[in-house]
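User: Please predict the structure of the protein below. I'd like the answer in structure-token form so I can feed it into my own downstream comparison script.

Assistant: Understood. Taking the following sequence of 390 residues as input:
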Amino acid sequence: MLVNSLITDFVKSQISEEAIICMRIGMKISPLTVLRAGIPNYIIQLLRALADADQHNEYILYTNRPIPFELNLPDRFRTVTVSFPSSQLQAWYQIGLPMQMKKDGIQLFHDPVYPLPFILPVPGVITVHDLSNYTNPGVHSFRSVLSGRLFPAHLRKARQIITDSFFTASELERLFPRQAHKITVVHLGVSDVFQPITDPAVLESIRNMYDLPSRFLLFLGTLEPRKNITRLLEAFALSSSGIPHSLVITGGLGWKYDKLLKLIASHPDKERIHLTGYVKEAHLPALLSAAEFLAYPSILEGFGLPILEAMACGTPVITSEVSSMPEIAGDAAFLVDPYSIDSISNGINLLCTNGELREKLSRQGLKRAGLFSWRKTALKTLAVYEKAVN
């Protein structure tokens, strides 16, 4: 099977620290105009790591609107705004961008979300984070589902395909076997800012900043159906009478969040449920360190970055036994059935009451997080670029 071969190559391969060849690479960064979490976070971290690992190639970063914050990248990373014939919808991407790429002398184009312009003048690389808008349309918005219907065409057009996990690679191989030879697994990394915070003053400051209780379990992620927050709330209701902890839910609003907010408002322990909204990356290490553990029972993830971020802070993790999450967590997390409220509740009870287990998972998590870095991500991405141009 392709995936077994990919795993073997992943374990055995030695990644060169040298940049591949000198060329001009285009990359779409328009998701940065919307949010800083999820895919935008991947783009930011990849760009930072490429700036550190690749001293030779030039990067032209394409967007349809100004980025609302400083990227702070070297001069060889240049941002170009494309608004012809319109910055709305996909007109800029399908018509204006190919024209701009020719003008800029681009030799390779990478879309870190996965669509490609249908008229593409250079080899294209796409990153497929997951296939959920194609395989599980019920947990996505209509616009995302519509995009998923074009997924097979984008796969055919791509010269190379990057996936975040072997799980996603296996799904691609199963559904699109003719594209299997293009796939390379490139795990994401964890930023150096995620480290254990033990200073009592810093931890007290983060509690005061977000009005947090002394003991709490934390969910971190966008508020949307596939994150399984509804079952997490039901599991917390089952567990709450026997534990002193509160539930803190951190993340920006996704879609279909109205039902979730109504469920919180009518929850029997609503006084012990705290919504922080989106939290800046600079505050996350302290927030994660203050939490007793991370509860992340998502239904489907292409990678599950909050798992690693929590582990890097020494925070124990409960996560799902499905999708990519066991691959990322290894033996350093407590796995539950995300479809079973009882399973999630049992996990919550166990980690709330068993300090030895929390300490064990904390130690194992720190070791596990150390296996992942954005520099490795950048170097393996550069190797994919080399495959694409050759």
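That's the full token string. The chain has two domains: 2-189+373-389, 200-369.
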